[in-house]
Amino acid sequence: MDVNEVLLPGVGLRYEFDTAEGNRIGIVARRDGRFEVVDYDRRDPDRSRLLLRLTEEEADAVAEILGAPRIAERFADLTREVPGLSAGQVEVAADSRYVDRPLGETRARTRTGASIVAIVRGEAVIASPSPVEVLRAKDVLVVIGTPDGIAGVDRIIHAP
Question: Name one GO biological process term (predicted).
Answer without folding.
Answer: potassium ion transport
